[in-house]
Amino acid sequence: MSSVNITVKNKSGVTRAYFLFVKAPEVSLGDKVFSNVYIQAPPVPNGNGTASFSCQTDYFAVCGTNPGQPLGSKVQVTTGDWGIAKINQGGKNGSHFLMKGDPGNAAAFDGSNLKQDCDQKGAFLVESTGFKLGNGGKHNHNDSKRSYRAVLMGTANQFIGLGARDPFDPTNIIPVACVPAQPSTQAYFVPHNTYYVSWGTYLPGQIVDITTISDPAEVDFTGKAATMAKVEHTLDGSWNVTFN
After folding, report:
1. 44-90 confidence digits (pLDDT tens)
2. Quick one: which of 19, 24, 68 has its CA closest to 44?
3. How many other C-beta atoms lie within 10 A of the C-beta of residue 13?
């Protein structure tokens, strides 16, 4: 289990509560990729206040269902099922997951069909199948009552995405980026080793609209041997980032 550590020094002039999210992965579906808060730190005072983030760098494929609540800003998303995702690198294929969302059942990965045949560089693959209702998929007929039943049965608002291990509970996988699942599609996910820090109060897994938050600090570990970064939030609102 590998990790990177980010320390934030609050020199902004006021007490701040910092949170961290990851750079959204490239996703082949073409739909909007929602960014979820990974870690929320408690408020820290100006001057000597320090927020610390320990980010687990293993990748996970996640899926789940949000009945009656489409993905959108401030919606908290929780993982229904997950699997360790190996990306295509070093001449080895990446993981290929099959997500099923059968009517009446929760979205889940079919463990018996896990493959290591993703041939896109830097990616893992999630294939969605087995459901027809919800997420804009075609309905068999125009029956609003059946659509409503689909919500109650857990077949609407299903999602797939990228997850990360909870630094406070290693048994919990937090969705850090997600997209609506669509029937009979394949989605390639290319993660990045880049993190963002901003301030505000959120819950882990909560979708954040990055167009409405304060300009975040970018902490990019790509190609670096460093596993630690220091971020200083200055009085004028800018950020100073150093690696060691």
Report:
1. 999 999 999 999 999 999 999 887 788 999 999 999 999 999 999 99
2. 19
3. 13
